[in-house]
């Protein structure tokens, strides 16, 4: 029986609630398909600050880097909001990404047909569903480029800078993901103005012949922001730089209408991937059995697919989630107004329903 080492970081707020359910689903998958998932729970965020004074203790990073994959709940909360920037819980996220050398963020924006009422777009626009994968560069570009200010504070600058290898590794993930999906990749940039964007296009054009089945297109970021709300169904994979990806992935997740459903993966070359729901620690509902665990459970599906190459098992989780939604079960956040009360369930029951649907 294969054994996989998973570091879990429950973190703060609803983090422990959703990680518990996600591990339950993983165990059910292990039992059904003959894998052994071995968890090591580590501290990060506010929970780590309370115990050690640091948002990301050295031991946590060491354990994460030595694992086969890392599953994170969420960090942060009002208790730690007044700490200085480098001592805040969210600092753990940057430390983890940097320390684990993950450079690409994969964010699916999926609108489940059962939840289409929550989509803020008109039915004639989003009626055919929504299934976009945004592949965002995570460790370069303007967020990490040279920056500065004139001494008299009369000017400040930030620099967008990309090397060919940095672009190539993102596009490779974009092309490979497109091959597993609907075989379309749109590179989003600002090539009418930015030199770095023109380099992204040149690299794309050089790599495209290696993926003849993938239909490549290019779009300026201002147009992409507009097209996401006008005709989101046209997109399959979007590959883009750090800042454009940051903005567009939030926009794309908002149009699905359900942040409690959206998963994400951050990947590097050989090391473990980092998997987490896109939502935060939801302190307003922490510990009340109200959190939707499905985004974390779907993050486990990504973990199985991208870190362990277990496609069948990943699909089994995704199908189980669909089955539970088809049967009408909802947590409060995805129930909508006037939803029948007897079909609204808590965190634990939702986890149990997914496990039942896996059988
Ligand atoms: P949030 O995502 O935690 O919550 C926004 C709203 O969505 C809240 O009303 C919350 O109850 C609801 N919500 C979120 N996830 C839910 C779920 N799974 N089920 C049901 N409802 C859910 O965002 P916020 O309120 O802006 O931030 C709260 C804290 O989380 C802050 O400290 C913030 O810094 C932190 N945060 C952490 C991460 C992370 O760990 N990756 C990401 C974003 C925010």
Detailed description of the structure:
With 359 residues, the chain is an alpha/beta fold. Helix 1 runs parallel beside helix 12. The protein has 2 domains: 201 residues, Isopropylmalate Dehydrogenase, CATH 3.40.718.10; 136 residues, Isopropylmalate Dehydrogenase (3-Layer(aba) Sandwich). Strands 2-1-3-12-11-4-5-10-8-9 form a 10-stranded mixed β-sheet, with helices on both faces. The protein has a two-stranded antiparallel sheet with strand order 6-7. The chain is 40% helix and 20% strand. The chain is built from 12 helices and 12 strands. The chain is globular, with a radius of gyration of 20 Å. The model has no long low-confidence stretch (mean pLDDT 95).
**Counted beta strands:** 12
CATH superfamily of the largest domain: Isopropylmalate Dehydrogenase
CATH topology of the largest domain: Isopropylmalate Dehydrogenase
Q: How much helicity do the residues have? A: 25-40%
How many whole angstroms does the radius of gyration measure? 20 Å
Adjacency order of strands in the biggest sheet: 2-1-3-12-11-4-5-10-8-9
- Ligands present: nicotinamide-adenine-dinucleotide
Are there runs of 5+ residues with pLDDT below 50, and where? none
Number of domains: 2
Using the 3D structure, state the CATH architecture of the largest domain: 3-Layer(aba) Sandwich
CATH class of the largest domain equals: Alpha Beta
- The general outline is globular
Which class of secondary structure composition applies to the elements?
alpha/beta
Span between N and C termini?
20 Å
Order of helices and strands: EHEHHEHEHEEEHEHEHEHEEHHH
**How would a textbook summarize the main sheet?**
10 strands, mixed
């Amino acid at each position: 029986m294969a054994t996989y080492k998973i570091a879990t970081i429950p973190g703060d707020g609803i983090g422990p609630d959703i990680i518990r359910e996600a591990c339950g689903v993983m165990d059910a998958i292990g039992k059904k398909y003959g894998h052994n998932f071995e968890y090591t729970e580590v501290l990060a965020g506010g929970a780590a600050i309370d115990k050690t004074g640091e948002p990301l203790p050295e031991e946590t990073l060491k354990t994460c880097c030595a694992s086969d994959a890392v599953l994170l709940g969420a960090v942060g909360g009002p208790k730690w909001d007044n700490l200085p920037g480098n001592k805040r819980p969210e600092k753990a996220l940057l430390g983890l990404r940097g320390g684990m050398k993950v450079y690409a963020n994969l964010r699916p924006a999926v609108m489940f047909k059962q939840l289409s009422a929550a989509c803020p777009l008109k039915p004639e626009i989003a009626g055919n569903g929504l299934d976009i994968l945004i592949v965002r560069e995570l460790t370069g570009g303007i967020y990490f480029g040279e920056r500065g200010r004139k001494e008299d504070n009369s000017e400040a600058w930030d620099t967008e800078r990309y090397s060919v290898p940095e672009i190539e590794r993102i596009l490779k993930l974009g092309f490979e993901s497109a091959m597993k999906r609907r075989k379309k990749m749109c590179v989003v940039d600002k090539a009418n103005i930015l030199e770095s964007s023109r380099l992204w296009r040149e690299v794309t054009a050089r790599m495209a012949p290696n993926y003849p089945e993938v239909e490549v297109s290019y779009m300026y970021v201002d147009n992409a922001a507009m097209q996401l709300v006008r005709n989101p169904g046209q997109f399959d994979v979007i590959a883009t730089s750090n800042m454009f990806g940051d903005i567009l992935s939030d926009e794309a997740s908002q149009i699905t209408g359900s942040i409690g459903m959206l998963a994400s993966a951050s990947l590097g070359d050989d090391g473990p991937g980092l998997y987490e729901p896109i939502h935060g620690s939801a302190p307003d509902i922490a510990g009340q059995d109200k959190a939707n665990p499905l985004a974390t459970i779907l993050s486990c599906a990504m973990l199985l697919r991208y870190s362990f190459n277990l496609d069948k098992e990943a699909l089994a989780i995704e199908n189980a989630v669909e089955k539970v939604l088809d049967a009408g079960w909802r947590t409060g956040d995805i129930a909508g107004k006037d939803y029948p009360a007897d079909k609204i369930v808590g965190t634990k029951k939702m986890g149990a329903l997914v496990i039942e649907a896996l059988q």
